[in-house]
Amino acid sequence: MNRIQRVLMQMQNHQLHQLLICDPLSINYLTGCYNDPGERMWVLLLKDNGEHLLFANRLFNVPPMDIAVRWYGDEDDCVSLLAQQIDVHQTLGIDKDFPARFLIPLVERSGVRVVLGSQCVDDVRAIKDEEELKYMFEASAINDRVMEEVSNYIQIGMSEKEIARFIDQRYLDYGCQGNSFPSIVSFEEHAADPHHEPDDTILKEGQLVLIDIGCRKDDYCSDMTRTFFTSQPDEKHQLVYDLVKKANEKAISIIKPGVKLKDIDAAARDLITEAGFGPAFNHRLGHFIGQRDHEQGDVSSANENTVKPGMVFSIEPGIYLKDEFGVRIEDLVVVTEDGCKTLNQLDKNWKIIAK
User: Fold this and answer.
1) Strand 178-179, strand 215-217: pairing
2) 36: phi then psi, degrees, rounded to nearest 5
3) In 3D, which of 262, 258, 335 has the Cα closest to residue 299?
4) Cβ-proximal residues to 347 (8 Å cutoff; 6+ apart), any chain
5) Helices 261-274 and 235-253 sit at what angle, rounded to 10 degrees?
6) Which domain holds residue 134?
7) In this structure, are residues 99 and 24 in contact, taking their beta carbons and an 8 Å threshold?
8) Residues 87, 166: one domain?
């Protein structure tokens, strides 16, 4: 209920008296109840008078809770039932994920004015509480262990897919719910593609290995990237690696409450640009993370917002040289009252593997 109160405060700031939430993770965040609704309607209606209502199909599992539940069946017109509970004289905030198949009939039948209201929940979810941070540190500790294990597991002659399967299995062995995103394993020139999907390519002596992985544990995600070498790196590989590591560390060093997210991005980007690799750093510096690997909010040159204690986001500079190789180093950080802490503790100095 404390989380709901924080959302109600955000609604007040945006002059909203009612807000419709359909994101299953946001509903879980606010009620402790998760359902994957598929094609059915699953929404939480928050009202500033406290008369909140959860709309649930009878097939869903909903434990006893303080919020009233409006049940419906497949034979019912769920949109009309929802329309009956909305104050048509007040603007309705709508979740950014609310399907058009429900939204359009709702507006047509009720005539209510709607505006995008997701920020009321997103801004609250961006500030992690102590319980959430506990889960996120635990998930990152598992990620550290799995990254260390896979770096010792890799051998010349293995395929990208084989290594990815090892990672995925280790998460299950540690009691995770699974991956927070599909594991990325990239050899040499494949690492120049930031979102390369592992294939049957075989690792050869002297190639670089980029690994970007994350697990989901207790409903919270981890995410990190490390880049390894299978032999002594040549001068260009060392130069690029050291530059990316320096950019990662520079960005982390300036994080504290009040700093603009765009300035954190600039701290890393300017360093890489000054070294002549600006165009090769072709994505934002980071993304927010929590119940999803990518949550609302990012660390980019376009984000004028300032950081606040409790925010958790990635710092992941990269340099990608087409048809040659790519290097990325990624850590998660949580903003504290006077700076930040990294959730990942695994060493970032370059390492030779598959000896």
Assistant:
1) antiparallel
2) -95, 105
3) 262
4) none
5) 160
6) 130-342
7) no
8) no
The answer to whether the CB of 277 falls within 8 A of the CB of 299 is no
The number of folded domains in the chain is 2
**Which tokens is 247 given?**
């950019």
- Domain membership of residue 355 (yes or no) is no
Distance CA 134, CA 41 (A): 32
CATH of the domain at 25: 3.40.350.10
Q: Tokens 């040549």 identify what position?
A: 234
Query: Tokens in use for 286?
Result: 């980071």
Two tokens at 223?
């995410």
Tokens (6 digits) for 173: 């062995």
Structure tokens at 187: 């050899």
What does each of the 355 residues of the chain score in pLDDT, given as a tens digit?
Answer: 799 999 999 999 999 999 999 999 999 999 999 999 999 999 999 999 999 999 999 999 999 999 999 999 999 999 999 999 999 999 999 999 999 999 999 999 999 999 999 999 999 999 999 999 999 999 999 999 999 999 999 999 999 999 999 999 999 999 999 999 999 999 999 999 999 999 999 999 999 999 999 999 999 999 999 999 999 999 999 999 999 999 999 999 999 999 999 999 999 999 999 999 999 999 999 999 999 999 999 999 999 999 999 999 999 999 999 999 999 999 999 999 999 999 999 999 999 998 7
Same domain flag for 92 and 176: no
Q: How many CB atoms lie under 10 A from the CB of residue 33?
A: 19
Say if residue 102 is in the same domain as residue 151. Answer: no
User: What CATH number has the domain bearing residue 275?
Assistant: 3.90.230.10
DSSP-derived secondary structure letter, 286: E
Q: What would the two tokens of residue 311 be?
A: 């925010």
Tell me: do 58 and 146 sit in the same domain: no
